UniProtKB/TrEMBL annotation:
The lineage of its organism: Bacteria, Bacillati, Bacillota, Bacilli, Bacillales. Residues 1-25 form the signal peptide. This is ABC transporter substrate-binding protein. Pfam families: SBP_bac_1 (PF01547). Keywords: Signal, Transport.
């Protein structure tokens, strides 16, 4: 068993506007949820509140359930509020569209998960996110994390759960047994692929049943090109102004083709959880996936020694970098009728005492000054790249474009679309996004 077995890590942070809004929320709770009136509260009867949460991480349900149970006990003990939580955890592939539909139809959950980079700008502009700037948790956020959950006008609008340093996962034992180290160029990666195949080891695990997984190629390839090629440094800005094209990113297919040609079978029948189990069992040496699957992988094989490395996309070693990002974050609906309790939970996410165990269970990185748990080995792997100046901030590509690339790369793998089809579809998706968001 490795020395880090059983270590846990997770991170969560949140903020919300206090003051008058919070004071009014208590009145709204009683009026709109069948909660206690002032007379009932004075008589010692508990107020009842139903809190609706929407978090698209079903694989982590048991950890959320436990933390929510701890929160409801705390609310009962400290405020005499009986909180009932309705936790909705849809699969990632459907979650974004489901949430957008709910928000647009005035059926917003009280608390919902958003992607810090992809969602916050448009959701904040649409008026869906409560201002959390004055909430206690904000003062606990690490300086490197706070900007990811801050709007363009300086409002903190979510509490971050996941901060990520990622590229791809690799089986350290397989690499060590075959005298391999993570490659720095595409040519070196091809040599590793050949050596693994000679040893009858499948180089890559493919799990494309869920479209968000092949989508991961986009922020990796595009992000590294944008940050290593002066001609592409303004790519996102130009795309936002209908002046760019993914035809500039055609070279990303070099790594995609290499992975697809040297991976496990039946990729379109294998989802994330099955992929995690297969990777844990050593079915392949590498997986284009992030460490957010660490909890699931180690549940299948607690002794697996795996690392995180940067994915080469070409023969420029300076382009081989780690992606730094903040993803899953919790926001409070601006229209919630239960804001007081919602804010209590948001702050509890970064509770001085309880949040350490919660984050450890989720195996997320620390995001607050109150997080004192030890980093995982794979986090340290990624940190070495960061220390060497070989990292970049996740590019601000619209979620609609990421959704489209996932579907297109499924079709590309199946031979139902070619490179030109994919590029055309991505350009169209970005232009459509621009029309709606200008």
């Amino acid at each position: 068993m490795k020395m880090w077995k059983g270590v846990l890590t997770t991170v969560v942070a949140a903020t919300m506007l206090a003051g008058c809004a919070s004071n009014n929320a208590g009145t709204n709770d009683a009026a709109n949820t069948g909660g206690a009136s002032g007379e009932q509260a004075a008589s010692g009867k508990a107020e009842s509140v139903t809190l609706k949460m929407f978090i698209a991480q079903p694989r982590l349900k048991e950890h959320y359930d436990k933390y929510i149970a701890d929160f409801t006990a705390k609310e009962k003990a400290e405020k005499n509020i009986d909180v009932s939580v309705q936790l909705e955890m849809p699969p990632a592939d459907n979650a974004s569209q489901m949430l957008k539909t709910r928000l647009a139809s005035n059926d917003a959950p009280d608390i919902f998960a958003v992607h810090a980079i992809n969602d916050i700008p448009s959701y904040y502009k649409a008026g869906y996110l409560e201002d959390l700037t004055s909430q206690p948790f904000v003062g606990k956020l690490l300086g490197s994390v706070k900007p990811a959950v801050t709007s363009t006008d300086g409002k903190v609008v979510a509490v971050p759960l996941e901060t990520l340093s990622w590229g791809y996962l690799y089986n350290k034992k397989i690499f060590a047994d075959n005298g391999l180290t993570p490659p720095t160029t595409l040519t070196e990666m091809k040599a590793i692929v050949d050596k693994l195949k000679t040893a009858n080891i499948t180089p890559f695990l493919l799990s494309y049943k869920e479209s968000w997984i092949p989508q991961l190629f986009l922020p990796l390839a595009a992000g590294q090109l944008i940050n290593s090629d002066d001609k592409e440094k303004d790519f996102v800005d130009r795309m936002n102004n209908d002046k760019g094209s993914f035809s500039e990113m055609t070279s990303m297919f070099d790594i995609i083709d290499l992975v697809n040609a040297n991976g496990t079978n039946k990729a379109l029948e294998v989802g994330g959880d099955d992929g995690a189990a297969a990777f844990a069992q050593g079915k392949a040496a590498m997986w284009i996936q992030g460490p957010w699957y660490a909890e699931t992988i180690l549940k299948s094989n607690p002794d697996l020694d795996f690392g995180v490395a940067a994915l080469p996309i070409n023969d420029n070693p300076n382009a081989t970098m780690i992606n730094l990002s903040a993803s899953t974050s919790l926001a409070v609906s601006k229209t919630s009728k239960n804001k007081e309790v919602a804010l209590d939970f948001i702050n509890y996410v970064l509770d001085d005492k309880d949040s350490n165990a919660f984050f450890q269970a989720l195996k997320f990185n620390p995001v607050a000054t109150v997080h004192t748990f030890e980093s995982y080995p794979w986090v340290n792997d990624a940190t070495e790249y960061v220390k060497a100046g070989k990292s970049y901030q996740d590019p601000a590509i619209p979620q609609a474009v990421k959704d489209e690339v996932g579907k297109q790369l499924q079709s590309y793998y199946a031979g139902q679309a070619n490179k030109e089809d994919v590029i055309k579809a991505l350009d169209k998706a970005w232009k459509s996004f621009n029309k709606v968001n200008k």
